[in-house]
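G., the chain you wanted modeled:
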Amino acid sequence: MEIEVRLATAQDRRALDRFYNREGLDFQSLSGTGKLGASRDVKETMYVIAIAADDVVAALKLDIFDDPRIGLTGLIQHFEIEDELERTDLGLRMIQEVVVLAEERGLRALDTVVPEDRRDVISIFEELGFEEFCREVCLRRELRISPFR
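Predicted structure as tokens:
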């Protein structure tokens, strides 16, 4: 199967919507910046996709921000690959495409957040020169719901 990795266009919107729905995500809700990008002003948003037989089989979102400390920075989010293609080089090819786009646009850094238990995904990023630079702790307080609401 031949797979093309490229920047998505407006014509890919429906295919992206179908793909993210298959992955259990709502494409329309991905248009926000998410937790990591919430405090940043997005300058540009793009999606990198992998196409096979006119179908999206992998996708990721790249938001570009102006970080006052270092300049233009990219944030990779919502990186998903069809299950049967996860053990191929497709993930590596997707991130390589993002690195090329980032270099062409003069970005100073690329960031992403990956769950600790996803060693497979972490190893793809590390293979391409990404390094861990911080750890975050997610905290939650469960609240008892009032029966009068």
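The longest strand covers residues 55-67.

Shout if anything looks off.
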